[in-house]
Amino acid sequence: MIDDELWSAIGDPTRRRMLDLLLADGGGTSTSLSDQLPVTRQAVAKHLAVLERTGLVHSAPSGRERRYTVDESQLARAINQLTDVTDAWDRRLQRIKRIAETIQKTRDEAQQ
Q1: What CA–CA distance (Å, rounded) separates 10 from 56?
Q2: What pLDDT is recorded for position 2?
Q3: Using CA atoms, how far apart are residues 81 and 53, in angstroms rounded to an integer?
Q4: Among 40, 42, 34, which Cα is nearest to 18's?
Q5: What rounded mean pLDDT belongs to the chain?
Q6: Are strands 65-70 and 57-62 parallel, antiparallel or unpaired?
């Protein structure tokens, strides 16, 4: 089953970049992320709230800020869902290919 809220969170390019940065750095704050992204600290905080609501990141107090880390099990869940969607589309496309080949074969036979 596909989690639409999870995929909506991952669907945003800024949030994907934030996940990349958090994974590469082992975590970060909204300030450290805003230093690396072309968005304001307030925008970063809003994106982090979406990621946290979907369980992709968790936060803990770190001085005057909150430190965010990626929940790798939730990220793995997203990857598994993507794999399932990919497999389903591969099966659909193979079916369409077989139908198209059958139609073409029927046309070729009718022309002979």
Answers
A1: 9
A2: 65
A3: 18
A4: 34
A5: 92
A6: antiparallel
